Amino acid sequence: MAFFDYREGRLHAEGVSINHIAEQVQTPLYCYSKAALRHNYLAYAGHFNAENTLICYAVKANSNQAVLRTLGQLGAGADVVSEGELRRVLLAGIPAERIVYSGVAKTGREMRFALEQDIFQFNVESEPELELLNEVALSMGKRAPVAFRINPDIDARTHAKISTGKASNKFGIPWTRAHQAYARAAELSGIRIQGIDIHIGSQLTQLEPFEQAFICVAELTAELRQLGHEISVIDIGGGLGIDYGDGAAPPPVLADYAALAKRILGPLGCRILVEPGRSVAGNTGVLVSRVIYIKEGELDRFLIIDAGMNDLLRPSLYDAYHEIVPVTQNAGEPLHYQVVGPICETGDTFSRDRILPSLQAGELVAINNAGAYGAVMASSYNTRPLVPEVLVDGEQFTVVRPRPDYATLIDMDTPDGPG
Ligand code: LLP
């Protein structure tokens, strides 16, 4: 189903013309489709068995309140990694019993806040974190519900910067130490063991690493149960890749991923948690930008647009491919462009060589598949106001985060230092 499509030559998000939104909001801007969000979430809910699965949307992918509310109203839980994300999720109306808390560096303060809310689960990533969580819980007269995130030492075969399941990565407890970690947790009266967790990386384009990880978890679960530990929850993390349109082999389909999880983990009779981020939000958003100049360089033709690496970092940080399309279709001659932003860094490049129908200054382009890890990773580098976000629902759109004005941005500083 296409939620972003051309109608009479003009790109639309659902029933709203992107040109119209750009005129109203100015560029750059992120535009999301509510129907696409719904569609992606319901696909997860449909492919996993709703009764014993909780889809904990990975909030880091796109944490706009409107996105969280949309998903929460459909029944989604949330995977959070900071007090800030936890606060966002609660404000958006996702109940604490659907929230899991991941991350390698939870502080005592963050643990206390999460315990006060009675969240569903802490995914504990190290022995020192376990000890601190125990202390904080005891000081509050509580028992923290815990799953250990296990590092299975599996190569997710994705970009090195978003691979998390190798022994050399900072994430999780080495699977070789799992027995000790669970034994220690069982001694702590501020801790209640309830599960096991893995997350081996993001933008996985093959099923095999998932299969290895699920097998590792299934084996460990059986062993831990034999040792007397109560394991009733298996959190399989996120990581399913999306098709960025770069011509690479398409990522596995959700049906196969869900079937794999059910085949390997189903017999254990646990509640399954899934933490998808990108595969829920990624294709639901575009970054809309205006061409400022066409500049003929010595070697390249530069398409200089008003969105920069501060608005969408992925191409600069991961050399990530994002499809770029003209918002108004044109039959112009296809030309090679180096697509760049306004930031004073050579890394501020969306594509070093892209063939696009010839474009003029003032025209709009859409950078596709920017709904996940787009706006959330934006900054105000070069004192550029944070990029606004718009949510389309049918024939209507709402600015769900306005562009801050310059005064708001600059007045956060205090000009007079000490003395
Ligand atoms: N669970 C945990 C514990 C995670 O760390 C992540 C993502 C997810 C779930 C969701 O993974 P997903 O389904 O979205 O693959 N900024 C990078 C991606 C970083 C992913 C971090 N962790 C990018 O733009 O590609």
What topology does this entry show?
Elements: E1 4-7, E2 10-13, E3 16-17, H1 18-25, E4 29-33, H2 34-47, E5 53-58, H3 65-73, E6 77-80, H4 83-91, E7 99-101, H5 108-117, E8 121-124, H6 127-139, E9 144-151, E10 173-174, H7 178-187, E11 191-197, H8 208-226, E12 233-235, H9 254-265, E13 271-274, H10 278-281, E14 285-296, E15 301-305, H11 314-318, E16 324-326, E17 334-340, E18 349-357, E19 364-367, E20 389-393, E21 396-401, H12 406-410
Parallel strand pairs: 4-20, 5-6, 5-13, 6-7, 7-8, 8-9, 9-10, 9-11, 11-12, 12-13, 15-17
Antiparallel strand pairs: 1-2, 2-3, 4-14, 14-15, 14-19, 16-19, 17-18, 20-21
Helix pairs in contact: 5-6, 8-9
What does this structure look like?
The protein starts with a strand and ends in a 9-residue tail after the last helix. The chain has helices spanning 18-25, 34-47, 65-73, 83-91, 108-117, 127-139, 178-187, 208-226, 254-265, 278-281, 314-318, 406-410, and strands at residues 4-7, 10-13, 16-17, 29-33, 53-58, 77-80, 99-101, 121-124, 144-151, 173-174, 191-197, 233-235, 271-274, 285-296, 301-305, 324-326, 334-340, 349-357, 364-367, 389-393, 396-401. Helix 5 (108-117) packs across helix 6 and helix 8 (208-226) runs parallel beside helix 9 (254-265). The protein has 2 domains: 4-32 and 282-410, Lyase, Ornithine Decarboxylase, Chain A, domain 1; 34-281, Alanine racemase (TIM Barrel), CATH 3.20.20.10. With 419 residues, the protein is α/β, with parallel strands linked by helices. The chain binds ligand LLP. Ligand LLP binds next to helix 10 and helix 11.
